[in-house]
Amino acid sequence: MTRVLVTNAGSxxxxxxxxxxxxxxxxxxxxxxxxxxxxxxxxxxxRNYLVPPSGHSTWARVLRHILMTERxxxxxxxxxxxxxxxxxxxxxxxxxxxxxxxxxxTLCQDKYRLIAYLRAKGVAAPATYPVTDLRRIDGIxxxxxxxxxxxxxxxxxxxxxxxxxxxxxxxxxxxxxxxRDMRGVPVDSFTLSEYLPGRDFGCQSLWKDGQLILIKTxxxxxxxxxxxxxxxxxxxxxxxxxxxxxxxxxxxxRAVRAIDRRASGIFGIDLKEDVRGAPxxxxxxxxxxxxxxxIFDLTGKHNMAALSVRIARGEPVEVSEEYDVxxxxxxxxxxxxxxxxxxxxxxxxxxxxxxxxxxxx
Length: 361
Description:
CATH architecture of the largest domain: 2-Layer Sandwich
Strand order of the largest sheet: 13-12-9-10-11-14-15
CATH topology of the largest domain: D-amino Acid Aminotransferase, Chain A, domain 1
Shape: globular
Number of domains: 3
Strand content: 15-25%
CATH class of the largest domain: Alpha Beta
Distance between the termini: 59 Å
Largest sheet: 7 strands, antiparallel
CATH superfamily of the largest domain: ATP-grasp fold, B domain
């Protein structure tokens, strides 16, 4: 029986990963851990452990104890912070990890450095400039060509934290000042970039020693908490669907190979189309599954999460085609509900269309 340890247990993202790996292997034994005892109560793991925060000096020692006690085969980090902590401690954790190289993780977790690197390698990504001083924001707008709107966001973080479309330098200054004064986020944590108005894609890929094993694509159609989110968009979709987009795949594969010719692990890539309809990479969520991983695991021929566990353990796998997609499968997510998968043909199952009844027009 394969045994895995999942960090951040009890969060929606961790429960989705557990759901996916169990769908691929019902015999899998899942252990969860979290430093928040209340969130941990919501974990779907078979067994759970309360642990110190990942920044604590005893964290790696405690995790190693759990790995040994539970005879864990693979440790699966859920958040960017978990990925960084596990990467730093990988030697202490006895090789029970399946992550890209530490230097690649560091590059990808700084969105400005990543975008600058990709553009230098000829990979499509939005023109982006670091904010080093509030007084220099006017100059950045000029370098962006005085756009109707620009995209302001932080260099690190998930879920579009600190992100906002801005129309003027004054709006950008006010937004960044608010985050500095009210949230303690330094000015130089922000960037301003070209605004990408087109379709919003998510891509998840699995690699081993430089070989692409599996890649899948989806499109975000609406977003959780959109009405209360000033950015109006987010990497957290309320409704998304599987799509066949070879140009997105081509861009993502070029990006991963540009940053690491020996890539191993999970590379989750976000893209948006520019004004010409070309997909541009906005970030790479490295070493972890997307919180929406179910759309990549419960559709198509292969369950990516379950497959990654097998590859990490050195088991042989057979994948006939790297790009695995079955179009028009939708995933619906909302607060306090389990993500639901359905095909377009099932839209009106058990639903009566009353729009033209009772004299309505």
